[in-house]
Batch of 4 targets.
Target 1
Amino acid sequence: MICILSLITCSAIAQNIYPTKIEGCNTERFGLENDSVSARKSNEALIKLITKNIDNDVLSDLRGVLKIQIIAYDDLTSCMISYENATNKSIGEINITGIKKTIDNELIWDSVDKVVSPMIEIYFLIDTVTARRMGFSGNHGLHELSN
């Protein structure tokens, strides 16, 4: 019984890590990145793609972290499935709709080992924007991956 509950819990977690779920993606079969990066794209390229949708005036005052979960398909395409906005701006101000559209239509991975769900945390600090790739494993829980 415990094994069945564990499998159900892991399956639910694998679908949507962040609280705001977005419809429209093929979520039939994918895993989470766990101990290493499986979908390759530089953090700089991810930051550029995501921030191009945010108005410069909003971007200059933006602080906090935007957490995004994406599915990287084996044909190198993408679909954003969930997010968490822990910034000082609303989802309208950061244009989450535009970010999703850009990820779904323009994010092409350099390589994908298997259909996987990268989790990306974008940190908006004074004068800088950085990104962290996150993984989830039974041994380490949620943790940062090296790119």
Target 2
Amino acid sequence: MKWISILFFLTSLFIFSADEKDAKHKDPADQNSKSVDDSEAILDKRINSLNERLMKHTKLFMTKLEFLPAKTLVYKGIAKDDECVPAEKGKEQDLANNCIKIEVFDFHKSEEGKTALGLGARSKYLVLFFEAGAKTDEPATEEPGKLKMVKSKVISNIFTPSELKISEVTDAAPHEAEGKKHDDSITVFYQYDGLPMRDEKGKPYPEKKDRKGYGLYKLGYVENTKTNPIRNTFKQTYYIKHLDQFDKFLTAVFDTNDRNAGKRYKESNKILKESLVY
């Protein structure tokens, strides 16, 4: 149900999106509310705080990933435009790597015990693009790295009836100060059954006035009034929880693999100690 709720909310958000010209006409004085603005300021601080927390995951660059949670993929690579190209085999701990992607996948209604029915697939991922890769070959002492971009994606592919929904959120300035400027650096792209398409370079087409909510648009253009605090709802019910969840996922991945390294140290010590009896 959690996946369905996320997609339902994102879909409703896209329907209410607006371009800059419309926004100027859709913001009458009687719709302004200090409570809405104050609430958004608190949400913005929370998002910035989460982006600060995500900086610590540079530790994963030089961590050998031997254990991952079920239904989870993590890979490191090199940023190319807005994509993270996986590192070649044997170069997973290369100092040149500057992005990390974590993806969690599942099947529709698996929480209801209906995985075997093959109703469809779903996945969500987070990509962290850093300004630079690791500065040392020791994960434990690696300093947090400044983020260049944070990209999130939710994919729902229902097989019968055929229905493919893709929601993509990109923050091109994760450390931008809170407010309108940061909102304008966050773009949302919603695609339903392959429409609207991307151009020949893979860039998403912007939304059109006669088809609001489909295509690419800035979060800053989304209505946020007393009647429709849609931007606040997006931040509070989805985006903050999404960032927090993936921060915990990545922390668990590092802790699990770090503990495994500690276990090997202990095993080595034990073997050496046992050697003293002969």
Target 3
Amino acid sequence: MTNVVDALVVNAGDSAVVSFEQLVPRHWVHKTLQENVYLTSVARQSDNKFLCGAIIPQLQQHFLNAATRPAENILLLTEIARQVGIACTHRLFNVPFNFTFLLSQFVCDLDIHNLSLLRNRMINEVTIYMTMRDTVDGTTEKLTTMNSDFSFFYEQKLIWRGKFDWSFMPSKRYKRLRSLTRQKQVLPSNNLPPLPTQVSWEAQRKQRGTRSPTASVLAVSSDAVELVKEATLVVDEQDLFFFDHYCDHVPGMLIFQGFNELAIRYCADSAPNYVTQAELNFHNFAELNLPVRLSVLGCNSNSLSRSVQLQATQNNHLLAQATLRVSNLKEI
């Protein structure tokens, strides 16, 4: 697995710069519901270095686990990093709010040692350092890219770090990209309907209604009695977390959560476990109207953890690949 960016040295005085008093506006992080906003402050330290604050929600269904705390949920911390990157790009690089952001790959891990030292603490906020590299002026009509390094701290102890590769583009270019990818990925015989517009999607959602997130995003065969190696991703457009706002494809965070659940199910014969390290690469868009299949390709193990290789496919096309480290609670 690729090494994550080295941790930063934390300046104790930085805590005075970070605020946790109120959430940033929803549109800064591309959210519709206030309950899905976790970012609280954004400050620029230099041309490409940023200092941010975020809360750790304690009651979100997708982040609850009887054996671990929300601060140990790698999906939650990855979502917070996503919000930090989007907000900083808009607010501090003047990228228009109608641009589309696409996450192409990321690698991240939890700091097991420091989390064990904080085992008896309720971690309800984090101080975040982010460095942006290879940025391009977001006002251009060309495809632009950004690489971001993140380090999350609680009481000056590193708890999570990650490295993201992004692209962002104006809506016209994004629509052309989606049209081209659908032509390549989807067989003519499937006769997929046109992509929903934001107006039509919101109208359909209003008609269907919404519901709180469910405990699992996987549909597993009822005759699966041994290790679960395959599952279908549950794409529920009424889900208030993954489909907080209009999206014309299956969100990458939903695929990530499916990978997390499948890896944990696959390792279910060991002690209670959770994902502590992840590396993901997204190759293609996942259409809303076709099944997404998740599969375990292989696994390497030692006494405390397993490295699980997975893939997501749709209509025989590769959507994403992942390597997840699943660790048991003996580590913390």
Target 4
Amino acid sequence: MTSRPAIASGQSDDYREKLLARASKKGSEIRLSKYPGADGKRRIYRVQSRPGGHGASGAKPGRLSDADMASISAANMHTPAGYSVRAEGSILVLSGPFSRTLHADIKAIGGRWDGKQGENRRVWMVPAGKGLDLERVLWERILRERGIDRETSSPHEVATQWLHFLEASLHDGTIEPSHFLEAQPRVTRFEDLAPRFDDLVSRYDLSTSAPGFHSMSEEEVAERVANRSIVRGIAPALREPAQLGDRWVVYEFIGIPFNLEKRHWVREDGTPLPGVVTGRAQFAYHRPATHEEISACQASVTANEGRLRRRM
């Protein structure tokens, strides 16, 4: 019977947990990448199934072939600007401008430069089994390009550098939603920086969804940011009146997802709510409902209740 390794990429956290539990029962081993891909999600890098034969790929019993590992790793690896990774058999090939520091890092993990002493392709070649090490090297280079130095800075300084990167990227229009998911666990652990992170999330939401955002004054932006609530699961209906506590509001748009934290799990008066805080959440932006919108909504509800009573 042929071994059948299961590979997943970009799946939800719930799916990952189920896959991990299922693999554990079957005696399998799963390794997750420590670094997120371009969409901010950690990747399932390798699954080792129970021994069951070599199969068509020629893999040893109990593990994927090196060619399969190279293909999976190359398809999911986040690379710095100007670089790309592809799989050639059991080798990961990194293309891009030559860098002495990058060359030293790749050489340290067992890779080599294909220069004049080889085929002179001017690429780095790394064994498939070193895929996670290559991912770490490239990720550190990405952080350095963003002005984030984890080697010589304290955790608080690194978190501040992340905020500076988000602010600059938001200003020049190069920011991506995945950047917020990458930065959040490093920034929001510090109470003095967490509100700045939420403010940047809202500014990104407004810049992509609110008409005329770039012509708004700081006061108008602050007012829009203040009129937001956190939603989980099913998002509220947009452009329809809804009750939020004792207020009537109209939700205008929903922002990008972020990881829910205990500081978000509070009542409107700021007191903490009991319970476990997990999962993804989004900011929902609203404005006060007009008297006409409230009246129309209440009339519609009364009419629907009347129809239901007649059917009973």
